[in-house]
Amino acid sequence: MAVFLSPVGGVAAQFFTNTGAVLTGGKLYTYAAGTTTPLASYTTNSGNVARTNPIVLDAAGRVPNSGEIWISPVSYKFVLKDTNDVLIATYDNIFGSGAFAVTNYTGNGSTVGYSISGNVVAVYINGVYQNRNTYSVSGSTLTFTQAPPLTSLIEILYN
C-alpha cells in the first residue's frame, strides 16, 4: 500500500501543552478529514504496521516507535489532546508529503469546467477548501456549480 509521511508529527516532532510543557502521554488521534471516523496511520513507509489510535506520545512528547507517522493517500484530521483528553489542537484536511499532484488554474469568471488527470481528492479556490457540493467530476473534467471568480487561484489536488 502506498503511504506518505505525515506533516503532523511526521518525523521526530515534539509536542507541547499550551503552556509550553512537554506533552508527556499526550494523545494524537487520526480521523478521516472533516469527521470523527477513525483512520489508520502507520509506523513504517511500507504501510503494513498500523499505529494505535490514538497515538500516545512518549515521555519526551514524541511519537513512539520510530518517531514517524505514515498516512494513506487521503485527507486526514489530526486531533491533539493532553493525557486527560483536553483538546490542544485540531488539524484538518491534512495530506501526506508527496501524496498528491496539484494542477493550478486561474479563474476567468466564466469557465466552469477544468481538465484533470487523476482521482480528485481536494479542491481549493484562493486557499479555501471547496466542499463536494460545489463541483462534480466526470471522466477527466471537474465542473464547478458556479464559475470561480476572475483571477482566483484554483488548486486541484489529485492522486
Please explain how this structure is put together.
The chain is 0% helix and 37% strand. The mean pLDDT is 89. It contains no helices and 14 strands. It is mostly beta strands. The strands form four sheets. It has a four-stranded antiparallel sheet with strand order 4-2-6-7, with no helix packed on it. The chain has strands at 4-5, 27-32, 41-42, 55-56, 70-71, 76-81, 87-94, 101-106, 113-115, 120-125, 128-129, 135-138, 141-144, 153-158. The chain has two domains: 1-98, Tailspike Protein, Chain, CATH 2.170.14.10; 101-158. It is elongated and about 55 Å long.
Brief overview, please?
The chain has 159 residues and is mainly beta. 0% of the residues lie in helices and 37% in strands. The chain has no helices and 14 strands.
Task: Write the SSE topology.
Layout: E1 4-5, E2 27-32, E3 41-42, E4 55-56, E5 70-71, E6 76-81, E7 87-94, E8 101-106, E9 113-115, E10 120-125, E11 128-129, E12 135-138, E13 141-144, E14 153-158
Antiparallel strand pairs: 1-5, 2-4, 2-6, 3-5, 6-7, 8-14, 9-13, 10-11, 10-14, 12-13
